[in-house]
Amino acid sequence: MFPILYVLIKQNSNEKKHNKFLQKIAEEHRLKFDKTGTYGPLSLGLDTNNKKLVVVEFRGSADYDIFDLKDVKNVKITKKMLPAGYSASKKERIIYLSLDLENKYASKITGITFYDEEDEESIDADIRLNDAKIWDTLIHKNLAV
To answer: Fewer CB within 10 Å of terminal CB in the chain, N or C?
Structure first.
């Protein structure tokens, strides 16, 4: 029971730290987040008024990007699958999952990683797929037409 309690406390502490950092970015850039989310080392903040998406990855240091959704042409979920039979599982499974933002003015695609099987902090891929779908919908609603 103690290891489970430790993991929950550590996860809660990390989420608070990530949210505090997101709010610091919001203040520095005069943003007001309508929606935020933390998924392992990934934190997202969406300002629907200014059409800005903040992506923070906490891997060693806290690196962040601010995307102007007015410059995003398309958003899509990308999955890399391991075919059935390659593991103990009888069905295919997700080994990598990202939300890809395509820039309007350059042939640049930026991937926001929601799940990577090689990352020890990642949890169940199906849960992350649901999270990615939620953000896909939110971002699509805020793309400039």
So the answer is: C
